[in-house]
């Protein structure tokens, strides 16, 4: 059995429970302090580091940890370049020996005192969701493999935070997440995307619960989509790029004409994503965003969720060209269309991108207002 002192994000009990894979009331922990140390923030990061010096670091002493507990903690902390070292911790006035995760990395620069309260309010829910997926690979994947997946793990965690914090939209049945029961969940594939297979029961309209049914769901992320519109020139900008979906379906037209779109990265808001993607995909600076709506792409078997915007901007003739991020293998061409030309494409059923059609129809209802305010 081992005793371990935690001073940073693992003091957030829901995170600790996720890492150790057991309820908080099953974890032997007491409040303790570590004299001669300070908990500092890190420049450009949201996690802390432990610094030797004047002061006292507050934390939790985790007692009687099993080897599996330590292995799980090592697996989680291994993603942050920490190693264990022995320390003397004070608990209730008595000194006891323990170990603490400590980093001597020169890359991380201390920055002031770190606040657990502030961190929990800003990052707690996101970090718990991220940790739950990270720890689901404990025993089956190496820490290095999980580190390579972190960008998409973070994006899926952000999607869960957005789903939890978003409004409950029109819901005539009144049923919600409390009216289902997950009996089994497995993740047979995870990389850039993931697949989850579940056995689930759901409330029937007669009030009873269904028998367990087996289903699979494609685990995408939230995405921000923006249709750039110049209300003065009455023009929109569309982008075109190669897409694997139509290719796998067997479509002959595998280059898609689309609005600008991109994944909502970990810790990012959909609005920030829309502005970032407009710059990356078309070199555009948006003046403001008009919210079109938010919706699932295909709720029967996909978590992907779209945040749709019309982005007000200037669109001179020379704005078009080829752009995209080279490190993401993007090769994106932009085109200008007049409003009338866009709506003619809609009317002739020449567009096969659902978000673009929705955004064009929204624009048709709000165009006069946007032009009047230009």
Automatic annotation (TrEMBL):
Task: Name the top EC class.
Answer: hydrolase
Amino acids binding Mg(2+): 261, 277, 281, 330
* SUPFAM superfamilies given in the database record: Gamma-glutamyl cyclotransferase-like, Nudix
Task: Quote the CDD domains the UniProt record gives.
Answer: GGCT_like, NUDIX_ADPRase
GO molecular function, a single term: ADP-sugar diphosphatase activity
The enzyme's E.C. designation:
3.6.1.13
Q: Which GO terms describe its biological process?
A: nucleoside phosphate metabolic process; ribose phosphate metabolic process
Q: Name one GO cellular component term.
A: cytosol
Provide the cofactor list for this protein: Mg(2+)
Catalysed transformations (reactions):
ADP-D-ribose + H2O = D-ribose 5-phosphate + AMP + 2 H(+)
Residues in Nudix hydrolase domain copies: 219-359
Q: Which InterPro entries match?
A: AIG2-like_dom, GGCT-like, GGCT-like_sf, NDP_pyrophosphatase, NUDIX_hydrolase-like_dom_sf, NUDIX_hydrolase_CS, NUDIX_hydrolase_dom
Q: What keywords sit in the KW lines?
A: Hydrolase, Magnesium, Metal-binding
Q: Where is this motif: Nudix box?
A: 262-284
Which PANTHER family does its entry note? ADP-RIBOSE PYROPHOSPHATASE, UDP/ADP-SUGAR PYROPHOSPHATASE
Q: Briefly state the protein's biological role.
A: Acts on ADP-mannose and ADP-glucose as well as ADP-ribose. Prevents glycogen biosynthesis. The reaction catalyzed by this enzyme is a limiting step of the gluconeogenic process.
Family per UniProt?
Answer: Belongs to the Nudix hydrolase family. NudF subfamily.
Q: What is this protein called?
A: ADP-ribose pyrophosphatase
Q: Upper lineage ranks?
A: Bacteria, Pseudomonadati, Pseudomonadota, Alphaproteobacteria, Rhodobacterales
């Amino acid at each position: 059995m081992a005793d371990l002192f935690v001073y940073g994000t693992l003091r957030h009990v829901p995170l600790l429970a996720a890492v150790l894979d057991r309820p908080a009331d099953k974890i032997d922990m007491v409040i303790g302090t570590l004299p001669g140390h300070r908990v500092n923030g890190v420049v450009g990061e949201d996690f802390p580091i432990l610094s030797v010096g004047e002061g006292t670091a507050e934390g939790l002493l985790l007692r009687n940890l099993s080897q599996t507990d330590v292995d799980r903690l090592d697996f989680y902390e291994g993603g942050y370049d920490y190693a264990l070292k022995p320390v003397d911790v004070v608990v209730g006035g008595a000194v006891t020996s323990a170990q603490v995760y400590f980093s001597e990395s020169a890359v991380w620069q201390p920055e002031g005192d770190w606040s657990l309260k502030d961190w929990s309010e800003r990052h707690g829910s996101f970090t718990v969701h991220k940790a739950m997926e990270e720890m689901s690979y404990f025993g089956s994947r190496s820490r290095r493999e999980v580190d390579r997946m972190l960008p998409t793990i973070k994006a899926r965690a952000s999607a869960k935070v957005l789903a939890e914090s978003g409004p409950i939209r029109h819901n005539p049945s009144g049923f919600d997440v409390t009216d289902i029961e997950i009996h089994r969940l497995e993740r047979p594939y995870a990389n850039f995307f993931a697949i989850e297979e579940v056995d689930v029961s759901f409330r029937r309209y007669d009030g009873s619960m269904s028998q367990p049914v087996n289903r699979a769901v494609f685990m995408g992320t939230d995405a921000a989509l923006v249709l750039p519109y110049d209300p003065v020139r009455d023009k929109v900008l569309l982008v075109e790029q190669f897409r694997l979906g139509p290719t796998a379906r067997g479509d002959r037209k595998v280059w898609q004409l689309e609005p600008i779109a991109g994944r909502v990265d970990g810790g990012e808001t959909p609005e920030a994503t829309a502005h970032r993607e407009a710059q990356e995909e078309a070199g555009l600076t948006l003046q403001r965003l008009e919210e079109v709506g938010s919706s699932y792409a295909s709720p029967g078997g996909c978590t992907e969720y779209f945040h749709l915007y019309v982005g007000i901007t200037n669109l001179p003739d020379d704005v078009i060209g080829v752009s995209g991020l080279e490190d993401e293998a993007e090769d994106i061409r932009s085109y200008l269309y007049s409003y009338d030309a866009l709506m003619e494409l809609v009317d002739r059923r020449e567009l096969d991108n659902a978000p673009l059609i929705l955004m064009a129809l929204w624009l048709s209802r709000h165009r006069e207002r946007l032009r009047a305010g230009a």
